Model the fold of this input.
Amino acid sequence: MEYFSGHISKLIEELSNLPGIGPKTAGRLAFHILDMPAEQVESLANALTDAKNNVKFCNKCYTLTDSEVCPICASKERDQKTIMVVETTRDMAAYENVGEYKGVYHVLHGAINPMLGIGQNDIRLKELFERLKDDVDEVIIATNSSVEGEATAMYISKVVKPIGIKVSRIASGVPVGGDLECVDNVTLLRALNGRVSI
Amino acid sequence: MEYFSGHISKLIEELSNLPGIGPKTAGRLAFHILDMPAEQVESLANALTDAKNNVKFCNKCYTLTDSEVCPICASKERDQKTIMVVETTRDMAAYENVGEYKGVYHVLHGAINPMLGIGQNDIRLKELFERLKDDVDEVIIATNSSVEGEATAMYISKVVKPIGIKVSRIASGVPVGGDLECVDNVTLLRALNGRVSI
Done:
């Protein structure tokens, strides 16, 4: 696209490296950015570098945070004896959006995946088991319902149960508001097997 | 979202100001950016500010460019006597992608739109008429087929025709490869009225 200025081409190229943004969307974004006030562009550019340079892992739960210990681990209002294990900071954010869970989290940053060569030492499992030396009542495993998430859940429960700490797994079943006929077979079977008396 | 670090929240907020990017996509992008190598984030941030600070209007055709005069206006291989009038730099890019047009452009940066208070003095029309004082053979109007684009085309032709310069409008009709039954009535009528003998 040599008819564009080099700076515009460069910007389009950089933007199209982002996930879900192809060359057309990148073009649309680039021209929108050129139309934005200079201070707003500056602010966006600063937000990018600031986030990259200042965000680190919480020393306790390994979520992404600005401080040594994240606000949830530092909070006196959260039950520090209940740990929910999630794969990513975004999964944690999903549960925080619900607003009902009052315990703390542990972010693994992945799941065991032998196909991709990700073993138990490549995610934050050691750090989780280290935390169990403190006074912990329950470990709630909220990894994804994928093969990798289930494998990780199994592994954690095998290690944690012998220590004598309660281990639970979030329920798997038909999503609320979901149409039964649209739900896959494995989920239908799980929902049946996991039925609760009413 | 106070459970996120302030820097992440800020980044998500900045990203969701971009067109077509909602809070969910912004979140996905933000976490992807945090996973990117620092130099890649730096490069994206620099591309943003570089484009904003260095891109200006071409002195002749008012497209966005790095230099005083854009490569197309400066090229000796382009027919400087044929001017295609487009609404935006992206419309120009669309025709440049085709690669067949050998004339030059004039970018209006908008179209006459009384509803939004955009009159003939708010887009680069004066600059277009100024260019016609040089030796010009033809003005090809390639504004959009919208009400505003058509109004702008009418206005330009009314001014340019009396000067004695040929004025043309790009053809309007059924898109190539389009299914006739999916085409709207106005387009069908235009295609009929604009039929050419074969």
Summary: Chain B has eight helices and six strands. Chain B has two domains: 6-54, 64-197.
